Amino acid sequence: MATVTEIPITLNNDEILRYSRHLIMPEVGMEGQQKLKTARVLCIGAGGLGSPLALYLAAAGVGTLGLVDFDVVDYTNLQRQIIHSTADVGRKKLDSAAEKLTAINPFLNIRKFDMRLSSENALELFRDFDIIADGTDNFPTRYLVNDACVLTGKPNVYGSIFRFEGQASVFATKDGPCYRCLYPEPPPPGLVPSCAEGGVLGILPGLVGVMQATEVIKLILGAGEPLIGRLLLIDALGMKFRELKLRKNPDCPVCGTHPTVTKLIDYNQFCGIRGEEKPVGTGVPEIQVEELKRRLDAKEDLFVLDVREPHEYQICNIGGYLIPLNDLPNRVHELDSSREIVVHCKMGGRSAKAVAFLQQSGFSKVRNVAGGITAWAERVDPKVPKY
Amino acid sequence: MMKRMSKIHIPTPLRQYVGKQSTVEVKAGTVGEAMNALVAQHPDVRRHLYTDDGKLRAFVNLYVNDEDIRYLQKEGTAVHEGDNISIVPSIAGGAIGPLVLSGSQR
Questions:
Q1: Residue A259 sits in which domain range?
Q2: What CATH number is attached to the domain comprising A70?
Q3: Are A192 and A139 in contact (CB under 8 A)?
Q4: CB–CB of A165 and B91 under 8 A?
Q5: What does pTM read for this prediction?
């Protein structure tokens, strides 16, 4: 005997026409589209991953879309955060995103959360949604989202990227693993390069973000095989996709049989107290770019060491002697410790490490150019491009 | 234990320490032997994978084919001819685990 659907269909004629390409497929149909309409999905982050994720969920007709982002659109975001346009630079990402999503699909209920997700607000926020999609860019938030998903019983559709590689999975389902089953401990702080230092292929969050949207839709429809217990590894350069098995860890402190984490913790501290190496860069002697310019113009005997990468040197340089930071230990003999050396990189972080290393190697006349070549471009010579 | 050729998949942030290769072939009988062969061939990669007292860093997982070695015999897991060993670090959107010790936060 055929099962009678018990889902009341509330799609009007406009919606039926809009979603016709969904409706004519048995895998979706009226019932599936109605499920999409009643679903409530929270997107954490309206940036690289959040852009394509939210755009496709909106197009698909997910009825309630929550967006969490406290950030403002930056010019360098436009290379990959395709929900934002040039005219949006300086605007709150939430407002920019909500405007585009509503333009694509006015039938949606968009809920904006202009805040930083924290242990104080996450649980209450998650309770109002069915599925959480994690598009964040830092470890404390990853662990916070994971734990809050497990504690509130909401699936965590996970995606992450670096340069040209990505990962995707679905965590925190009842019988599946959570993020902590895979990575019980966060990496130490102070050693984490951001996109600004590591770079990212613009298309990559597009690829991974749409995979997240796909998994969200599959979970809502109950169709296909979701990435539960599966870690998808994406290599965009090789265009290779590999899959690893993820198991639910019975000893997992959050989702195991005897959980020890039963409420949200201080995640910054969690990511901090595990530190094996302290962040370098505090307390090294510095030189400001104005003083550097003055002394170079006066033809003083200063040796300028540039510890960036060769491809950065090609973008812009101030004529420094290039030894990439990672090569420094092997090439330190090229430097004359009797001379006064100033070290710079892009923003001052890598060069601070270099200065500390040189000091440990017996160099006493060495200083870090505070703010790097970026500060030089901002305050000394605007003809030098920023990147 | 008999040694066999297997392939170690190197994640992006570590490729600079292994001559930019995305895979490294090693001759080994177990995962532990394969990783030792890797760091012997490419000493620069050791500190990114292992602590000073020789333990695999907590935010790095190792897989043989598609299975996590923590659920097999850990570093004693046998590798067979043609097996794929994957090094899988935690990555988090724009930020990645400290496999690249040269970077630092803004």
A1: 39-273
A2: 3.40.50.720
A3: yes
A4: yes
A5: 0.81
